[in-house]
Write a structure and sequence with these properties.
The chain is an all-alpha fold. The protein is built from six helices and two strands. It is globular.
Length: 153
């Protein structure tokens, strides 16, 4: 890791993780992403819920990338979603446009959960699901290639 990588994480409020790879927390991160994506595919769930599952899958994947790189967003950190998503630019090297799309998805999730329940369309869910699957696959590929120890159960 370069010094600039560590400096950016310090600015984001991201700290080094204790241990990486074998803890039950790391296993839960790996399983949670798949569970959220699977839940997002369930047609019986409301579009609002399916959108939230897509966002949660990406958020969990971002946390998994951070853990694999040896970092974490400390518990109780304000704006922890923001920091986890922003970290994708420095772990997986996701481009700024993709990060903006993820942030937009997060705003839609908040709207659907708290402000305008029932306004998420089926087509929006399908687009969001395809995007979430691509993002999560990119993170999983990066972890397998750069931190294979994180994948060991």
């Amino acid at each position: 890791m370069t010094g600039s990588f560590e400096n950016v994480f310090a600015i984001l409020g991201v700290s080094q993780a204790d241990t990486v790879g074998s803890s039950s927390r790391d296993q839960r991160l790996r399983c949670s992403t798949a569970t959220d994506l699977n839940d997002a595919r369930i047609p019986a769930l409301s579009p609002d819920r399916r959108l939230a599952c897509c966002y949660n899958a990406i958020l969990t994947a971002a946390r998994a990338a951070l853990r694999a790189a040896g970092y974490r967003v400390p518990k109780g950190t304000a704006n922890h979603h923001y920091y986890a998503i922003q970290s994708l630019r420095f772990t997986v090297l996701v481009d700024a446009v993709t990060v903006q799309q993820i942030e937009s998805m997060g705003k839609k999730r908040v709207m659907a959960d708290y402000i305008r329940v029932g306004e998420v369309s089926q087509s929006m869910v399908e687009e969001t699901l395809a995007f979430a699957e691509t993002c999560c696959r990119q993170v999983a590929d990066w972890i397998r290639e750069t931190h294979p120890e994180f994948c060991q159960a």
